[in-house]
Design goal:
- Helix content is 46%, strand content 15%.
- With 355 residues, the chain is an alpha/beta fold.
- It folds into 3 domains: 44 residues, 434 Repressor (Amino-terminal Domain); 139 residues, Rossmann fold; 148 residues, Rossmann fold (3-Layer(aba) Sandwich), CATH 3.40.50.2300.
- Strands 2-1-3-4-5-11 form a 6-stranded parallel β-sheet, sandwiched between helices.
- Strand 1, helix 5 and strand 2 form a beta-alpha-beta unit.
- Helix 9 packs parallel to helix 10.
- It is elongated, with a radius of gyration of 26 Å.
- The N terminus is likely disordered.
Length: 355
């Protein structure tokens, strides 16, 4: 068992194993260069002394580390959890480590007036100071100023979930316009021609683009669309917005299209308690971020839009590697989304047919 009081060095390993410092370095970084018996002897000493190499010297020589950095907004949003999973697993499969940082940006708190202390730019600078081998920024706001500050120190940079026209980096997006279009197309295919869009104002780019897609599809499909402001992105906000809509919902079959699943669940809760309106026969409900997963305890399954978070993270790591190539041309990748039908629009018989 290693001595916890000691701080073993590479020189100590070399002395104990009776080899040169270069041989120890090869055992760690290029083991194929050593004879099997030499490698085994060095590894046994490393294990016994508890030696862990320092990457500081290597980073100093190369002016970059092998690690990758990922900055995400607040991880209460499942999209960014999935982006993180996709990035981490893809990095590991390619022999890279991924260090993650949470910038604490929260769209719900922003909408409700809570003061934000967004750490995105601070973490960009931190990863630059560490000479991280590449940085992926999963952002809900324009990262241009923060990236410009570190550009001379970290070249491979990929932005995920925020589109900056003409950007000097690769970009990975989901098609948020398609999110809005898919929601309207789904209800229009069901014969619904009246819809209400419940959302926070256009304070973040995904909301702007989803609204654009909704308006485009509604105009094309002959759906009368009314836009309703919500105070936030939680179930309680959806419930409050739906309370104001109740007098309008009984006039004809309609749909409530919620900017995210939490808001949609609040709408469903109110409609269940109200009782006079049947879901989905009188009112269909659609969420737009695939955040909610039915665990079998739901009153009914929620129709939503599945977002490609995992694939976005994986694609971001691929593009970080591509950014290291001398002849690299920046790419803008927009991944598709798809509708996930549930009982809130097609009823229980429809979901069984889908299955």
């Amino acid at each position: 068992m290693p001595d916890s009081r000691a701080n073993p060095t590479i020189n100590a390993v070399a002395r104990e194993a009776g080899v040169s410092v270069g041989t120890v370095s090869n055992a760690i970084n290029a083991p194929a260069r050593l004879a099997p018996e030499t490698l085994q002897r060095v590894q046994e000493v490393i294990d016994r002394l508890g030696y862990i190499r320092s990457s500081a010297g290597r980073t100093l020589i190369r002016n970059r580390s092998d690690a990758l950095g990922l900055i995400t907004p607040d991880l209460v949003n499942v999209l960014f959890v999935e982006i993180s999973r996709g990035a981490q697993l893809t990095a590991a499969a390619n022999g890279r480590y991924l260090m993650m940082a949470n910038s604490l940006f929260n769209a719900h708190e922003l909408a409700s007036g809570t003061v934000q202390h967004d750490l995105q730019d601070e973490f960009l600078e931190h990863f630059a100071e560490a000479r991280t081998g590449g940085v992926m920024v999963a952002s809900m706001r324009d990262p241009t100023a923060g990236i410009a500050r570190i550009r001379n120190h970290v070249r491979p940079i990929v932005v995920v979930n925020y589109d900056v026209p003409g950007a000097d980096w690769c970009t990975v997006l989901m098609d948020n316009v398609q999110v809005g279009r898919a929601a309207v197309d789904h209800i229009a295919d069901l014969g619904i021609r009246r819809a209400f869009f419940v959302s926070i104002p256009d304070i973040v780019q995904p909301v702007v683009e989803r609204r654009r897609g909704l308006r485009q599809a509604a105009a094309e499909r002959g759906v009368r669309l009314t836009e309703i402001d919500a105070a936030g992105l939680m179930a309680a906000d959806g419930r409050r917005a739906a309370e104001d809509l109740l007098p309008l919902l009984a006039r004809e079959r309609c749909a409530i299209l919620a900017v995210n699943d939490k808001v949609a669940l609040g709408v469903l809760q109110l409609l269940r308690e109200h009782g006079a309106l049947r879901v989905p026969d009188d009112v269909a409900v659609v969420g737009m971020d695939g955040d909610h997963r039915d665990d079998g305890a739901d009153w009914m399954t929620l129709t939503s839009i599945e977002l490609p978070g995992f694939a976005m993270g994986a694609e971001g790591v691929r593009l970080l590697a591509a950014e290291e190539e001398h002849d690299h041309v920046h790419e803008r990748v927009a991944l598709p989304v798809r509708i996930r039908p549930g009982e809130s629009t097609i009823g229980s018989a429809g979901t069984r047919a889908e299955a």
